[in-house]
Write a structure and sequence with these properties.
The chain is globular. It folds into two domains: about 260 residues, TIM Barrel (Alpha-Beta Barrel); about 100 residues, Golgi alpha-mannosidase II (Immunoglobulin-like, Sandwich). Helix 6 crosses helix 7 and helix 9 runs parallel beside helix 11. By secondary structure, it is an alpha/beta fold. About 25% of the residues lie in helices and about 25% in strands.
Length: about 425
């Protein structure tokens, strides 16, 4: 016995066997190869908040398929807050038995059978924002549970996180997901307070850059202790962040409000700008009851192609004149997307001389030089070819609306092949 004690003491002193951290190493690296283009799908929160149950989720899955939304590229069905029941005696989370009587595994199987992917929500704190059990202290158990259910996407919120540091908390859930062994897209929902774009690239696949979106074109809603933001207010908060985005790691300005009450012109502008800044396209409306106008906006294959472009470069504001902003987004194969955004309540004329001066994007090392190369011009929302860059562009942008053009050198600036999303999601 004396010899064994001396041997153990010697090993501990040398640090060769029992030193802290040597017997268990965490993997804080996210699953690679996911979300190579911005994720597309649906989330329950914007329209239904806590009013979620398994029948709703099944109906949404059915509607995504029957409406053509799945074919347009919308893949994920994500249940947000309030699906939770209690933890069992061993600490494993259970779904609310009244709302999800069949259980989450059965629901995930239903979603998967439709050719879709299944997502859930949790929180880094002790409670979710809606007061349900959070994952703090249960991260590895929860990750194992999600894997057993067949979860493909996790939105991880930041309520009730007293004393936690964001980077460390999100690394913990990443390590837990890796240990569970099922590839999961991790959506970091920390609201941008701790600048997740500076550390999130290796930890998650997308990160919220702001507080919650609000169904309004250009306003801020004050809730007292926190605020939510209209579309233009959130767009402005993306300034200076484009260098952090790219395949597998995206800035997330929050979910879409298209179809939730704004007029069609504002919905079109909203959708266009999310496409231009390579934002995740996560629907927030009731897809079971879409108007034809809403469906046309959300399924426009040419606008989606701008968002899902494989180059993965976030667009940028190039110029501002009065209330009209000119935005550009480099695309693959030497193409460019150009948007004229009218933020005023009146129609505004626009004119753009393509050949006046080359436009260089230092981030992507690309150049739009119409003096050297003639581009064909395509109007995405009218779905028509509108000439070439040999002639300066002139038009009128309606109030709170956009003109979205794609410039290319092929037979047309748009190819039908681009409407088929291949995102590696």
């Amino acid at each position: 016995m004396k010899k064994l004690i001396l041997l153990l003491a010697s090993l501990m002193a040398s640090g060769s066997a029992f030193s802290q951290g040597n017997n268990y190493k965490q993997n804080y690296q996210k699953y690679e190869g996911l979300a190579l283009t911005p994720p597309m799908g649906w989330n329950s929160w914007n329209k239904f908040a806590c009013n979620v149950d398994e029948n709703l989720i099944k109906q949404v899955a059915d509607a995504l398929v029957s409406s053509g939304m799945k074919d347009a590229g919308y893949t994920y069905i994500n249940i947000d807050d309030c699906w939770h029941g209690e933890r069992d005696a061993q600490g494993f989370i259970q779904p609310d038995a009244k709302r999800f009587p069949s259980g989450m595994k059965a629901l995930a199987d239903y979603v998967h059978a439709k050719g879709l992917k299944f997502g859930v929500y949790s929180d880094a704190g002790s409670q979710t924002c809606g007061g349900r059990p959070g994952s703090r202290g249960y991260e590895f158990q929860d990750a194992l549970t999600y894997a057993s259910w067949g979860v493909d996407y996790l939105k991880y919120d930041w309520c009730n996180t007293e004393g936690l540091k964001a980077e460390g908390a999100y690394k913990t859930i990443t390590a837990a997901l890796r240990r569970a062994g099922r590839p999961v897209v991790l959506s970091i929902c920390e609201w941008g307070n701790d600048k997740p774009w500076t550390w999130g690239q290796s930890v998650g696949h997308l990160w919220r850059t702001t507080g919650d979106i609000y169904n309004c074109f250009d306003c801020v809603k004050d809730h007292g202790s926190w605020k939510s933001f209209g579309v233009m207010a959130i767009l402005d908060k993306q300034e200076g962040l484009r260098q952090y985005a790219g395949p597998g790691h995206w800035n997330d300005p929050d979910m879409l409000e298209v179809g939730n009450g704004m007029p069609a012109n504002e919905d079109r502008a909203h959708f266009t700008m999310w496409a231009m800044i390579a934002a995740p396209l996560i629907l927030g409306n009731d897809v079971r009851k879409m108007s034809p106008q809403t469906k046309d906006i959300l399924t426009n294959p040419e606008a989606i192609a701008v968002n899902q472009d494989r180059l993965g470069v976030q667009g940028f504001r190039h110029a501002v004149k009065d209330s009209v902003e000119t935005w550009l987004k480099p695309l693959a194969d030497g193409k460019w997307a150009v948007t004229f955004l009218n933020r005023s309540k009146r129609p505004q004329p626009v004119a753009f001389d393509w050949k006046a001066k080359p436009i260089v994007d230092e981030l992507s090392k690309t150049e739009l030089n119409a003096a050297k190369t003639t581009y064909k011009v395509r109007n995405v929302w009218t779905r028509k070819d509108v000439g070439t860059t040999k002639k300066a562009f002139a038009g009128t942008v309606p109030a709170h609306d956009v003109i979205l053009l794609v410039l290319g050198t092929g037979e047309s600036a748009y190819s039908k092949k681009e409407s088929r999303v291949s995102s590696g999601q």
